[in-house]
Design brief:
It contains two helices and five strands. It is an alpha+beta fold. It has a five-stranded antiparallel sheet, covered by helices on one side. A hairpin with a 2-residue loop joins β4 and β5. The longest helix has 16 residues. The radius of gyration is 17 Å and the shape is globular.
């Protein structure tokens, strides 16, 4: 018996509402002359931190901060220098103290890497996880990933 046909799981940049552009740097390369796998963690960090630490979005009220607790990366294609990248981010899940993101890196219309990351809201004074507030949840709504079933 044949397995059911698998739907294409290649991410589409348009499904990620938060986007940033950047350059591939020569320093990002490894001896194989492509972007080193560890550099992708920095690309994904740039996307998360740029969104969450921008006080105008209301995702980090005074007295709290975000820490990343998980990062799962999928390398999809080789990325070389010189070049530009477009990073995308979308929220896929809320926990009591956490937010789960899907993230992508595209170059020349091709998804070269994707990731799922989890960030936890931390009380700066106690250094303990703290519950997401209604305001934080409301302020994340524009950043929900499109085309993702949360059921």
């Amino acid at each position: 018996m044949n397995a059911p046909a698998r739907l294409d799981s290649t991410p589409r940049l348009e499904d990620f509402p938060y986007r940033l552009a950047d350059n591939v740097r020569f320093a990002d390369l490894d001896p194989n002359q492509h972007v080193n796998n560890a550099v992708y963690a920095t690309y994904f960090e740039t996307g998360r931190v740029t969104l969450m630490k921008d006080r105008s979005y209301g995702l980090m009220p005074s007295g709290v901060t975000w820490i990343m607790v998980r990062l799962d990366m999928h390398f999809r294609a080789e990325l070389r220098w010189p070049g530009t990248i477009e990073m995308g981010l979308g929220v896929v899940k809320f926990g009591r103290t956490s937010v789960t993101f899907d993230q992508v890196v595209f170059s020349e219309g091709v998804c070269v890497a994707s990731a799922r990351s989890v960030s936890v809201l931390l009380d700066e004074a106690t250094r303990k996880p703290t519950a997401l507030t209604e305001d934080i949840l409301k302020n994340f709504q524009p950043w929900l990933r499109r085309g993702f079933d949360r059921a």
